[in-house]
Amino acid sequence: MDKNTIRTFFAIDLPVLTSEQIEKELLLFKNSNLQNIKWASCSSMHITIKFIGEFNPDHQPSIQKDLLSHLRKFGKIKLSFGEMGVFPNLRNPRIVWLSLNERRQLIRLAQVVDLITSNYGYPNEKRNFSPHLTLGRVRNNASSKDKELLGQKIANNESMDIEPFTTDKLSFIKSSLTPQGLTYSTLFRIPL
Question: pTM, whole model, 2 decimals?
């Protein structure tokens, strides 16, 4: 990473109540015999809209201004969660996620962010945006038995009981790797 750049992404922050409900629902998985899974912490949960990666801080004022202009009348986004799933598949899970039911507004938001950031040289997303909340990551040293057990638990799990929520802002977040792990700090927020 260039010493003048920072690692960043755009995201929707979760309300504290929503994060706490998800944390409570995850206890079933955390207290099971599943090994080698790093579960997301309540305080760091967010819905990623666009991962930028290496970001030149000199671009921040201009991108912030452009987003303010383009998202001024975007409107609040009502969100609710659906089923749990995994990437890439249940036989070889790597990422555990929670789906979102109302996807259209999030997809539109991601398209606006992609368009604005591409004007500053940040690559467009090659894959279609798939809104989700990452709940956990399977560690590289997970055994095939661990992966199989996780796949079975996900396949047998019903939707989590989490109240819908409304968001009215997009956050631009800096990600820093510290000895304690990843830490996030919000650089700016754009009202929707």
Answer: 0.91
